[in-house]
Automatic annotation (TrEMBL):
Membrane spanning stretches: none
Pfam families assigned: SET
Gene3D superfamilies tied to this protein: SET domain
SUPFAM superfamilies: SET domain
PANTHER family reported for this sequence: HISTONE-LYSINE N-METHYLTRANSFERASE SMYD, POTENTIAL PROTEIN LYSINE METHYLTRANSFERASE SET6
Biological classification of the source: Eukaryota, Fungi, Dikarya, Basidiomycota, Agaricomycotina
All copies of domain SET, residue ranges: 1-325
Protein name: SET domain-containing protein
Amino acid sequence: MTSSFSLQSTHYGGRGLFATEPIPKDTLLLTCSSPYATVIFRRFRKEVCGNCFAYAFEAKRNAWNIKADAGSGVWFCTPECRNAWLQEQNVEGLQGLMNASVERLAKTMKQPKGPHTPSPAESMLPEAITLEVHDRAWKNAEEKYAHRGCPTAFLDELELDNVRFLVSAIVQRYFEERQSGTSSASWAALLQLQNNEMNHVYANPYMLDSHTRIYGFLRKAILPVLQPYVQTSEMVRAILGRDQGNVFGIWDMSTEGDSEMLGWSMYPTGSYFNHSESLDSAFKFTHQRFLDCSPNVRKERRGRALCFLTIRDVEPGEELCTNYVDVKDEVVGRRAELLRNWYFHCACKRCHEELGLP
């Protein structure tokens, strides 16, 4: 981070980034060179470079044709990107081997026949999902999937993408611990992000069953060298709990029509850009989250890196705010999306003015 801003406690709780000196418009505040964890949606994996996230359609091509190792499920736009990925993201071949393992196991899944029978978690009312109930469900999952003979859980395409995201994070932590001999600063930064595990399940009770099935699938697919990371559900829960509300979409860079989301990435340091002035929490497990629908910071993807730049001049003491949603949307739509995905009612100055509230 530059010396022009610092991480400080906020008056509303938590921490935020504040300018310590005047910052001109278009100043590059922070560059997150590479995500801690990432996944490209499986349906786009031939069209999105696995290293720099370049989208083939933007180059007027249908797909990229440079592959990594057989079975790794990763394609690249140039030989240079392929080599960079092999050297930096696929050390010891683990990422490619895990991708292949997930793909093989996915082919053995058998979709349940007949109508869907809701699990107990899916049938629960939100107010019944206490932390105790939640922890018990995960403990049961640990015991269930510890048995080798347990059938492979059936996952839909998005759930399989969640498995691949978890794999990316686990492999990253493995590499960092091998290099440092201890838990890394990057993993510690990830743990500093707000944990939305209970918020997410409280808003979407079916996610408890989904997350435990994802864990069960991962335990079957995991390579022996990575087995210690999934012996219990602790690490999987830590990642999934911070996935919701803390990741950044990988979007196509098209300037025509609607942009399409191609996957998502987690940049822990980038999530320090807080948001200002929201109303009270919408859900009982939610810590207050704060959003300014007139942000002073914008995000810009430059290949694999995510950069944060000022939109306007910023005064000393002013909080640096980015946006969660498209701030060009009308106020009702913005607030509905924030409530649906981040579990709070936005009460920033702009929203109040557009709603005619005091």
